[in-house]
């Protein structure tokens, strides 16, 4: 059967990985369209029709023609349409959203930027990088403290908040952040990595387009 979803992204992109991980944990095979950012493919009219912000990821739901942008919003959509990972009650869903908004407010930006500098994709003054590093460390400390005595970020089961946050923390070591002093995060990551359907970015994101998964 043809896959329901088509993911547009690039294998080096953390936000693209969040969506691929969400799809895989939901058991959804997906077509994949490689978007070469260096060639400006994300700023073409055709791509802007998929994602008005000119960023990856974009997700197409081929069953109804929907085109979705923003990894966190896409994860919410996947939870809505699959009935998985959305939280067990309204209160859990509210907490899940809070963590997802916090992610892009405090955690993702400094960690992704430090990784970008470490990999040579991004240039910045040392003082600016030091500021990002301090912000990233502070956010990791918040998450580590929250996870004490908890298996998952919200409630008793994994949710899209875990997927969203994992899709950042996975890249922390590549950004120069040590997780050795973050034992709760390390244990939580191991729990995510044990879930059926889990895959690393290398396993889930091809370097080229893939017509059928
Ligand atoms: N908040 C967005 C961030 C997406 C994002 O930053 N994508 C990067 C690649 S990792 C991108 O497309 N950069 C090119 C650009 O912004 O022009 C999301 O979660 O989807």
Explain what you see:
The protein is an alpha+beta fold. The protein folds into two domains: 5-84 and 198-204, Glutaredoxin (3-Layer(aba) Sandwich), CATH 3.40.30; 90-193, Glutathione S-transferase Yfyf (Class Pi), Chain A, domain 2. Helix content is 49%, strand content 8%. It has helices at residues 14-25, 45-48, 71-82, 90-118, 126-147, 160-169, 183-193, 201-204, and strands at 5-9, 30-34, 58-61, 66-69. Strands 2-1-3-4 form a four-stranded mixed β-sheet, with helices on one face. A hairpin with a 4-residue loop joins strand 3 and strand 4. The chain starts with a strand and ends in a 9-residue tail after the last helix. The structure holds glutathione. Glutathione (GSH) is lined by residues 13-15, 37, 42, 54-57, 70-72, 104. Residues 13-15, 37, 42, 54-57, 70-72, 104 line the site of glutathione (GSH).
Provide tags for this entry:
213 residues; alpha+beta; Glutaredoxin; Glutathione S-transferase Yfyf (Class Pi), Chain A, domain 2; 2 domains; 4 strands; 49% helix; binds glutathione
